[in-house]
Amino acid sequence: MNNNLANLYWQVQENPNSLCDRLQYAIDCEANFYRMCDALKQKQEMDDLTRAAWFYQILRFSYGSKASSYSWKGRDLWRDFPTILSAHHRLRGVGVHNKDFEHFIKLMDAPDTFFYCDPPYYGTEDYYDGVVFEDGDHERLRDLLLSIDGKFLLSYNDCRKFVSCTRDMVCSLRKSPGWIASSSGMTAATNIQNYSYRIMIRKPVASLHNRCLFDWS
Ligand SMILES: C[S@@+](CC[C@H](N)C(=O)[O-])C[C@H]1O[C@@H](n2cnc3c(N)ncnc32)[C@H](O)[C@@H]1O
Predict the structure, then answer these.
(1) pTM (2 decimals)?
(2) Fewer CB under 10 Å: which end of the chain, C or N?
């Protein structure tokens, strides 16, 4: 779904030292930032290691999470090298897949599987470059999650669309700082899951307010 992100993870898994080597002499300047942005946007031909190094620099040298505008803060990438190497160890044995959610969830579903889903939120479907998430995809995800054997936790900015789904789903309001952007401004982040938190944690967490979907007004 995001080839550059998946490729970066694969390079951290397979070639962390080569990736750090490539980043050693990275030039943090505006012209270079936009040159790399254009090259990746236009899908210029380059090897996977270069693509990962450029994508990493764009993430680090950009102002916001959209990674489309240059930040003038200045950043020493050498300070990131220990984190990249730690990530390499952390990702040992971890599968990184770049597939549509339906393909992946169907493949992995089993009674003891746990899915954490963080799809594009309502009103921000077009936020991700090169990824098309259509309105019907929200329903496609909902119907799929209602049919699985495993457990899921789903993050959303608004769960009203899910109200008519089922009584078996539990909905909780996550308090600030879980505020997220939507087309109409900032809305409360919402967690929806098909199990009770009490199954997962013995003591109820004070900051989480659990309610049934049908309590939603
Ligand atoms: C709210 S963001 C998740 C961000 C992620 N949790 C993180 O911390 O980086 C939504 C993600 O859904 C991905 N996405 C969009 N359409 C998808 C699809 N059909 N299947 C799987 N993922 C998709 C987007 O590429 C984007 O990375």
Answers:
(1) 0.80
(2) C
